[in-house]
Specification:
4 helices; alpha+beta; about 90 residues; two-stranded antiparallel ribbon; about 40% helix
Length: about 90
């Protein structure tokens, strides 16, 4: 499920047009997010997405901030459809 869901991120962004400050897990249903794997697998999924954002693999997505909490750091992102040539 990891690779299958990872391949759907850009399309999910285009369909959902999330509000600024979104977290990657909110692009998925609770069931889908849990199907990615255990907590370690989901952390790896998030890190891979963050690296993809840094490498500009996800048009229109930029890093917003990192929220530090006891359960682990959570990165937040912005999505600008105007910067995504495939959107619309």
């Amino acid at each position: 499920m990891f690779e299958e869901y990872f391949g759907t991120i850009q399309e999910r962004l285009r369909q959902q047009e999330p509000q600024n400050g979104f977290e990657i897990e909110h692009l998925f249903t609770k069931e889908e997010w849990q199907a990615i794997g255990d907590g370690q697998a989901r952390q790896q999924f998030g890190r891979r997405f963050g690296t993809g954002v840094k490498n500009e693999d996800f048009p229109g997505v930029s890093r917003n901030a990192t929220r530090v909490n006891p359960g682990g750091n959570e990165a937040r992102y912005n999505y600008d459809p105007a910067q995504d040539e495939g959107a619309g």
